[in-house]
Design a protein that fits this description.
Blueprint: H1 2-15, E1 57-60, H2 63-70, E2 84-88, E3 91-93, H3 105-109, H4 116-122, H5 125-128, H6 137-153, E4 154-156, E5 161-165, E6 171-173, E7 176-180, E8 183-188, E9 191-193, E10 201-203, E11 211-213, E12 219-222, E13 226-231, E14 234-236, E15 247-248, E16 251-252, E17 260-262, E18 267-272, E19 275-281, E20 284-285, E21 300-303, E22 306-312, E23 316-317, E24 321-325, E25 328-331, E26 343-346, E27 350-354, E28 357-360, E29 370-373, E30 378-381, E31 384-387, E32 390-393, H7 396-403, H8 428-435
Parallel strand pairs: 1-2, 2-5, 3-6, 4-7, 5-8, 6-9, 7-12, 8-13, 9-14, 12-17, 13-18, 14-19, 18-21, 19-22, 20-23, 21-24, 22-25, 23-26, 24-27, 25-28, 26-29, 27-30, 28-31
Antiparallel strand pairs: 10-11, 15-16, 31-32
Length: 442
Amino acid sequence: MKKMISTILAAFLFSFGVISVSATSNDLGSEVLQPKDGWASFGNGTTGGAKADEKHIFTVTNKSELIEALGGDNKSNGKNDTPKIIYVKGTIELNVDENNNPIGPEYYAEGTGYDLEEYLKAYNPEKWGYEKEVEGELEDARAEAQKKQKEQIVINIGSNTSIIGIDNDAKIIGGSLNLSGVKNIIIRNIEFEAPRDFFPQWDPTDGDYGEWNSEYDNISITNNTENVWIDHCTFTDGENTDASFGKYFGRTYQQHDGLLDVTNGASYVTISYNKFEDHDKVMLIGSSDSKTTDKDRLKVTVHHNYFKDVTQRLPRVRYGEVHIYNNYYEYTNDSEYLFDYAFGVGAESKIYAENNYFNFSYDVDPSQIIRYWKGISIYEDGSFVNGKGKGSRVDLVKAHNQGNDAQLNENVGWKPSLYTKIQPTQAVPANVKAKAGAGKIK
């Protein structure tokens, strides 16, 4: 009888949009991070909106409903710490106006004076050179248009929030979720498509030949945010690949930034069972060598993720104690995104990598898997590298030191304790491919 009453009550609440059906037989909205599941289980753990009352459980189908569920005012939603569970149903497009109508670069550029053709003429390296950063009216106009886009597509998330995809087709595309100065967030079972920055900046001083640099990560965890669990999500460029943007000044007109970045003192983050596919810069932990206040912060666990045909930052780390284990890295011949490096050893970083599996369908020198970025230490054990059907266990630190001038040691000064079990490396490919990504919560 009690079960029948609960079923009737659930059906009644769902009909009014108060609660929603979850992606599995369990209610994902009430699930919390289990003890010892990475750095996000530190302290009081990560529970998201599990304590939400009935008035703060929502099902949303578009951007306006998402903003309303988060508190009603996107500019101040980041300060709304009321426990809330938000179920995402279907596809939510963030690059839309207040009436949920799609908008493009013309919408943001209107009234700013920005014109791409004029911008290209003004800052052509043949005229401007490579010695100084761009400045002037056209650069100011570009920055203004970019600011207008940011106000429209960046969604601020408050503390004590769970954002959960229902069914197996929940998507958030065309924008960025911003977790800034907040605590206790869970995001699960959602497919994200990388947002496009319509107004990338030309920086002639970036590298030997200049680069186009863009804004907006799919998810930005920043400014001392703590206790975040990102689980069973998919991140991809979708149809907007880098090659589709073309080139100016001989460089890719890059309209993508990162997929999932942890920066500016954020800490206690677990990133588990996600799929990252077809993208360049994937995961940055620590934004600047000069940000010395990041010391003793940026504590992140990255486990059982599927990195497929992604180029770099898998992750790149500064300062943080980052545990990277049981991840699967796969590269195929038919992707435009070629491998550059996986583990970026940045300033005072303390990566602890265990039992990760690398599978390449083309030849890659194992000395490339770790990249020196002014850090000196990384602990690594149990990696397996498979290239063209031939695989073996590889000591990646030794391989790096044999193939590069910069020499690394394994004295990171800490040992992870917030985990339950680390699988044998040979079991990683099948397990991760079966379980990682949106729609695969069992």
